Amino acid sequence: MPAVAISIPRRCRATTTNLRLGPVPTPYPPPNYSRMNTYANQGEGGTATRTFPPSLFLAPSDFCEGCRFLHSFLPRAISARGAVRGNSSPYFSAASALLPRTTRVGGAITKTPGVGVCIFSLPRYFLTSFRHSFPARPFKIVHLAVRSALRECRLASYTASPAKWQVDGWVARQILYLRHATKHMETGRAVGPRRCVEHVVPSNQGEFRMSQPPAPEEMNVYQNAEARFEVAAQKLGLEQGIYRYLKYPSKEITLYIPVGMDNGSLEVFIGYRVLHSTVRGPGKGGIRFAPDVSIDEVRALATWMTWKCAVVDIPFGGAKGGIICDPRKMSRGELERLTRRYTAELADWLGPERDIPAPDVGTGEQTMAWVMDTYSMHHRQATTAVVTGKPIELGGSRGRREATGRGVMICCDKALAKLGMKKENTSVVIQGFGNVGSMAADLMQKAGYKIIGLADIGGGLYNEKGFDVPKVIDWVYTQKKPLQDYPGGGTKMSSRDVLFQKCDVLIPAAIENQITEKNASQVQARVMCEGANGPTTWQADAIIDAKGVFTIPDILGNAGGVTVSYFEWVQDRQGFFWRESEVNERLLDVMENAFDQVVRYAETHKVNNRIAAYMVAIDRVANALKMRGIYA
């Protein structure tokens, strides 16, 4: 049979123009509805055993353009070299169903708008066949095709089943779930035409109701932030215009930063700055130096800063910046030149009344001193309030270094009081031993907590007898030795495995996406306080809730840092600086009030603490926007 050439839509065409596939199976194998029911139940969480009638599934003729493309593309792709494995007509089945989505909120199961799921079952030898056809990055070709098809039907993402196979280092996925926004379900039948297209249903009250959004890609932090925003916005019943205004950032900029290196070469680094909102005040957000910085990550962090400032009720909006680099491999001089050039490029964006940076991953007090000096040179005057997190000698605030860790401890104190637990000998596991993790560990041990698990980028330690945290800090920061080599440190394990050890309080204080749908069921803590930004994915939230874990979300749990940054900004503008005891007293007041407000919202609206925190924040920003109006 002659090979069949197919056209791949849009962006995929540029990378796979000459893709030629094997014969088209004629006819397609009919959908196996028994398998489709199994896969549909897996798509709804893996535990359901419902039986869906064949009439509920869509025929390929009912697919949208994107799904029709996949239905045509995948069987040809996987049959391209099927004869290599002795399979001249490899098994392939596809179906689409309109399923009700169930969610668990506070122990109660509620039914939400239906979700259209196009389910494609791929054979086990899929990858091997594909590898023979296209030796270079075989799975990426399918990935590009799937993403392109999703753009055709205006979807954001796709997810795969837990079933995987590893072949020569490549991961094949057995099932692809394409989730579509659809109309509501009634008594097991779809309302209206059974087509997998996106619907936005307007109402008559000047507000709008969105159907169930597509499931976010789990490791995409911006899509995780968006998913939580969607739920909170729907709970609040936001007006359509307000919803659209708050959903997107105000400004984004990408910078290409030339830096002369110590060896005489010239390197160009990529940097970003995103300003999400200035509705309640100037933008506020850190600058991170890390090799995995991306625009989606910076966008998500800027969004979280807007909600974080609002939830603790300080007059800032959200912003964030980052540069793709590895500061551990750069000299002090290279880092200074990189920081100063980045600041110079943003000189017209930054300012005490515009956008105020702060330290983040890979940056610290010295970095902020360089930012302040560079900005001051461009504006011909010393402007200490342009950044926070500076050295005290340059207008920094007392208590700022410990602020985020102290805020974590305050939230844990409040959670234990609410649950009727005593902090004396309450066991704590902390992932992350940077500023937040080390300060939280030190302060909490002094307050009576028992720190039994610690981890940093190099690995983790678990010791049920507890650690002497000041000695660990000395070992890591003064003696510059690996955390895992700390004498008497107990059981060694990976940094992520520390999260799943038995404890009373769990504090993920490292990086994003540490607790996911795959491992959330392993969490054994009673209380989880997020010291990092976005350590728990959207898909993991429901699992954590179902386990009854009392969660203090990141936009509340780690808000101590931005709160004392606000205090620093106030002190710089006044030229009058407070005692450390006064800073800590004000921080305690802000954090306790914010905690009480979030818990009250959660109980009133019957949502979990994370959605409650988003609701508090979004409501405050939306009200401020309504009062200001829109300047046309």
Notes on the structure:
48% of the residues are buried. The protein is 37% helix and 21% strand. It contains 18 helices and 25 strands. The protein has a 7-stranded mixed beta sheet with strand order 22-21-20-19-23-24-25. Strands 3-4-5-9-6 form a 5-stranded antiparallel beta sheet. A hairpin with a 2-residue loop joins strand 4 and strand 5 (108-121). By secondary structure, it is α/β, with parallel strands linked by helices.
List the defining traits of the structure above.
alpha/beta, 632 residues, 25 strands, seven-stranded mixed β-sheet, disordered N terminus
Give the overall form.
globular
Major beta-sheet overview: 7 strands, mixed
- Put simply, the count of helices is 18
Overall mean pLDDT? 74
Helix residue percentage:
25-40%
Number of strands: 25
How would you classify the helix and strand content by structural class?
A: alpha/beta
Low-confidence stretches: 1-33, 39-67, 73-215
Sheet with most strands: strand arrangement: 22-21-20-19-23-24-25
Measure the end-to-end span: 63 Å
Classify the beta-strand content into a percent band: 15-25%
Radius of gyration: 26 Å
Short note summarizing the structure:
The chain is of the alpha/beta class and 632 residues long.
Topology:
Blueprint: E1 4-5, H1 12-15, E2 20-21, H2 33-43, E3 57-58, H3 65-78, E4 93-105, E5 108-121, H4 126-133, H5 138-152, E6 159-160, E7 164-167, E8 170-173, E9 175-181, E10 185-186, E11 189-190, E12 200-202, E13 208-210, H6 221-236, H7 240-247, E14 251-260, E15 266-275, E16 283-290, H8 295-311, E17 317-324, H9 332-345, E18 355-359, H10 365-379, H11 403-419, E19 427-431, H12 435-446, E20 450-456, E21 459-462, H13 469-478, E22 491-493, E23 505-508, E24 527-529, H14 538-546, E25 550-552, H15 554-557, H16 560-574, H17 580-605, H18 609-628
Parallel strand pairs: 16-17, 16-18, 19-20, 19-23, 23-24, 24-25
Antiparallel strand pairs: 1-2, 3-4, 4-5, 5-9, 6-9, 7-8, 10-11, 12-13, 14-15, 15-17, 20-21, 21-22
Helix pairs in contact: 3-5, 6-8, 6-18, 8-18, 9-10, 11-12, 11-16, 11-17, 16-17, 17-18
